[in-house]
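Hi there,

I know you've been waiting on this one. I reran it after we fixed the sequence typo, so this is the corrected version. Both the input and the resulting structure follow.
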Amino acid sequence: MSGNGTARTGVLLCGHGSRDVDAIAEFEHLTRVVRARLTDYAVDHAYLEFARPVIRDGLEALKQRGVARILALPGMLFAAGHVKNDLPWELNNFAVDNPGIDVAYGRDLAIEPELLRAAADRIEAALAATDETETIERADTLLLVVGRGTSDPDANSNIAKVARMLWEGMGFGWAEVAFSGVAFPRVPEAFERAARLGFRRIVVFPYFLFTGVLVKRIYADTDAMAAHHPAIDIVKAGYLNDHPLVLDRFVARIAEIDRGENAMNCRLCKYREQVIGYETDAGAAQAGHHHHVRGIGTDADHRHDHAHHGHDHDHHHHGPGDHD
């Protein structure tokens, strides 16, 4: 981005948003890093829910800077409800109201070699930091990969693929998957099943971009399980965050949009195909969700638990997944 705001192409990094101030700080850090690397673009960020600015305000801010084109990138690992419905709804409404601005939409980060390498680095770092009195071989270690969890089976299946590739690539004895919400198994159930398999060590790895309510819940559940299984060495690996390879993938995705190479893989999308168990979702109208939490702010703004006001944000009927 040219700091004077004269760039003709804008980039909007579209975050999920969170009640957690640490999560928002990490996304803002990502924006600063990307901005420093893309000096020919006007780079900004916005959120679907909770935090501000909301997506529409982010788009309007770029418009005020005089851009003729906006490249919108979902800052999300997989394509579920937010990527397939909520963000397109926001972008399409803005595009209709602003026919003079070309709005191009990118695809999710998906499963890429760089992201798998970044995941492996986080796991290796956690293992290297363990205080071992005796060596535990990889063959005696189980990897538990935890995803966000959605009502989209395609997105959920990606966690299984990530787990399998890390399991085989890093030489673990076994791998299991779990989800922080919506999908099953949840972390406590998956952990108990893993504990019964007899491995001496379990590595818990949240396959998340940023921290937030859900990641902190995963770590809290892991601590609770560790207290119940003192004979098993429990290792908590860090989430992806600002790993250099993650940042490279963000920049590469933006370049793809600019080149027009932003087609999403929709072969197993439940909205385009009649996926087993989700046949009625095929052809559903595209619509935004979570209007009740859009832009309401983080916990730092409210200093209270939103659950007290009837929003526990662990809904199963919305589809995109548990909220941060």
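Quick highlight: Residues 9-110+243-309 form a domain with the Rossmann fold fold (CATH 3.40.50.1400).

Best,
R. S.
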